[in-house]
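Section: Multi-chain targets

For targets with more than one molecule, the full set of components is provided together so that the structure can be written out for the assembly as a whole rather than chain by chain. Components appear in the order listed by the source. The example entry contains three components.
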Amino acid sequence: MNENPLPSVIPEKDWKKIQRMLSKRSLWMIHFCTGCGAMEMPPTMTSRYDMERFGIIPMATPRQADLLLVTGYVAVKTLKRIVRVYEQMQDPKYVIAFGSCPINGGIYWDSYNIIKRLDKYIPVDLYIAGCMPRPEAIMDAFLKLMKDIDEGKANGWVRYRKYYEKYKANQMRVFKRWDE
Amino acid sequence: MEIMSLFGIFILLPLFGTLISYFGKKYAPIIGLIFTAVPGVFLYLWYGNFSSYTINIGVEINLTFDLTTWFFMLMINTVIFASFLFATSAELKNTGGFTSLMLLGFAGANGVLLSRDFLSLYIFWEIMSWSAYLLVLRSSGENARRYLLFAVLSAYLLIMGIGIVYYYTGSFLYSSAVGLPQAAWFWVILLLILGFAVKMAVMPLHVWAPYAYSSEQPFVAFLSGGLSKLGTFGIFLTMFSIAGVSVLNSFGTFRGVSLMGYPFALLGALTAFVGTILAIMQDDLRKLLAYSSIGQLGYVMVGLGLGTPLAVGGALFYAFNHAFFKSLLFLGAGAVIYRTGKYKISDMGGLGYRMPFTFLFVLFAIFALAGIPITSGFISKWMIYEAAIEKKFIVITPLMLIASVGAFLYSFRILYGVFLGQLDKPHENIKEAPVPMLVAMAILMLPLLIFSIFPGWIFEWINGILVDMGIGKLNYTTYAYYSSIGGADMLVFWIAFMLLFMVAMIIFLMKKATKVDQYDNYLAGEAPSYVQLHAAHNFYKPLRDTWAHLLKYSVDRAYERVSRFFVEGFEEIKKIYTGNPQDYAAYLGVAFLLFIFIGWWLL
Amino acid sequence: MTDWIGILTQAGLTALYLFLAVVIGLLFLGIGRKITARIHNRVGPPVYQNFIDVGKLLAKKSNIRHNWIFDLAPLFGLAGVLLTLAYLPMGGYRLLSGEGDLIILLYIMVIPALGFALGAGASANPNAGVGVMRALTLMFSYEMPFLLVVLSLMIFYNTASLDVLLNKQMNYAWAIAVLPLSALAADMALQGMMMEKPFDIPTAPHEIASGPLVEFGGKYLGMLMLYSAASVIVETTLFVDLFLGGGIVLDPGTYGSVAYVVNYLVWLILIFIVWLIALFINAVFPRFRIEQAFKFYWKWPTIIAAIGLIQAYIMSVFLGVVP
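Its structure, encoded as tokens over all components, is:
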């Protein structure tokens, strides 16, 4: 997946290691609060649970960011926007899902409007259990994500590219129209 | 070179062209091209053949062909050639009339530049002015009326000045205007400069410009790029050829600058500032360019008013640059208006993706206007700034500097509102401007680029003019120019710029990029397939709101109030004519008694 | 023209100074984040964080572009800001400032901003257009006092060349001691020039989705980050060169190469102090609206700068002070 046209002087493995180090120490998240978990984001950003020390800062647009936080339940309407925002991000990109709603529907398990399994529509790299997870849990998740990136396990974006048609088919089954 | 060939090529040939191109119909602009190319060729051949002549065609007309004349004729000839090249594919109505009037104006302009006495100056000035009036009349009577008012004002001011000179010296020649008393010189210089300043659209005599510049764009390119330079030429002539440096200095000097010239420099700085502010607030593309033109010519006025060699040289160079970049801008606007049919910036948008060459040329002209060192527009700005700073003027310089920053604002408005941003659905299939228009724009762009790399070539001409008029000398080499407080070297600049650009390119090209559509934009997750999302309405609203209470004062409205005062006064006076015979009988009786009374009192 | 060795050494030294300037700029941005975090009672990222950020951005696997005009933004931005750096004396070393004076520098400073504005406009996002409009209005606001300050310096020292200005400050006294009011107005204008709070209006993340930066990502954003790091150095160096003698404490003529090293260190300390002042104000202030910024700049900083201008004029013309 490496589109680098320059001949690599560094052996392939080392170059990937450097890239992973750069990626993991400077994750930029989109400040795009989708659900009720958005309440837990400001405490994580501010002085007590400072997440900037890991290099994670909120950015305004998906073009500039590489971490999408799905903070809570996902309605069908929100899912369309989340998918658009996810597709506007640039590779490599990661998704963390908060709460129990993206896992199995959570307290909205019998709603007609809520997505029960987020992983069918966009690839999720990490789930955080809880309703809502506290900032300590979010910090733990960030550290785990950084470890996963280091070991090369956080490859949701590779999966999205490889199985693009399957993901699109799942999405289209839920949306009636894509362009409204 | 004899008088008949000079007179013939530059004046009679365009007049002849006026006659025959009227019947040209579709091919009229091509005929116009030929009739402007021929004088251009001779202009190139006759460089260096400078002398004076007299010719008698019933009236004695004195002509001169010197470096100043040559310099200005170069500008005007190139601009009208480019205008005609543009007009060949602009689909104007009644092209025969257009071409004949333009050639008439060209003949008049040449005559103004060539004259050596006031009578021929006035004759050719009127020819030029009237042909411009008829050209504005082709688009709108209302605009033409405003233009006519100020053109007539300018003619009257000139006549008054000429009259004073004739009264004291009994001759119309420029060279015989010596030995006038101080008071007479004051009035002569004042009236002549004001007369020429109307053409240059200096405040407060500028109100005709935004309306007249809303006519068909090839003509406006010639009007703004070519004919307004005649105002510059006239002021230069008055101050340095007719009056001379010694007369100017006899009025007293203020920090080394003649007291006669300083108020005009101040007026020029004010024009630059207010013109730029008004240009920022405009939405109509043609009016924006008109106010920008008013502002830029304010700089020329500052340079001419200051009178030092650096300042006057800067003013001449600025006039030269302005001729090219302003006509380039008007031709670019004309191309856009031709393709889209709209003239408000808020209706356009994203045209740069479909008309890339027009965008590049307009971009280059904007660089010249803003004074970016890539173009020669920077050098002229530099000269005028250094001239003002050398002499430590603290009112003129800040006004000029802040006007220059203001120029960035409306420059970006032109670029973003018209060429960048979102492409609207009606304009999705716009084609690039036709090739003749592009070639015309390329011709106008070349001098701006060349004289930025080799400023020494144009400094040679300007230095010659300054030495001829006894103003002073400039300090320059082929690539660099210096003043008493600083200097710049263009060769080093260009080499550094090229090298660093290559460095940036190398870093840039190390990774590939994928192209996406303009609708694949971040809009907080929304992705409408078609909504006009171009930020073009009320573009500078914060600025306009902050200055709302100052923008209420407008010279335009002042003039309208004055004219309304007179109109209402005349309406009142009209009430004498009641149509009632008894009233008229009463008037007769009263007048009769009045005459008897006065006659008895006088005797 | 035949002194190739001299030209090559000068070009090499210039390249070295430019590279160091970009590195120091990124370091300053990182130190800025650390200090801001400490003011907020947080831990903050490590000081080399911005290097990691730029590296990550330049190493992104996919980059999005809209059209060829969009590509001009990082190209003109980076090339323009490096060109501006080349015309500024840094640490007392002339670079190219002998070949161009303050006026050409003021206009070269516009080239990167203009390229960036063009690229942002070409992204076809209305936020970008509004953002650039606000950036230009902000520039119109802070240039008013700044140009008055520059004018007062040029009138007082009777020169427009930065080279000569530095020499005169070295021999006479630093300009901040002679024209303190102008220095105050220049520092206020500098806050707007560097786009630090309360004037970070154009790239406000929450108000207009980062304004002009809205569609830039990947290598584009990486190069623009290099541009913003270098522009921090440009603006602080401009202030230090104009008012603090450019950090020249030892005359290179008498001391040789040692003088260059010492001057460089002093210059580094001085720009760090100027950066700290801007940073402290940035850490505690909220953001102005653009109308408030405009009204602020055209009121008190302009008045202070005008008083400084009159002072320079009186001292230079009437009192005949010749520095």
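The helical segments of chain A are 12-24, 41-45, 76-88, 101-104, 135-151, 156-162, 164-174.
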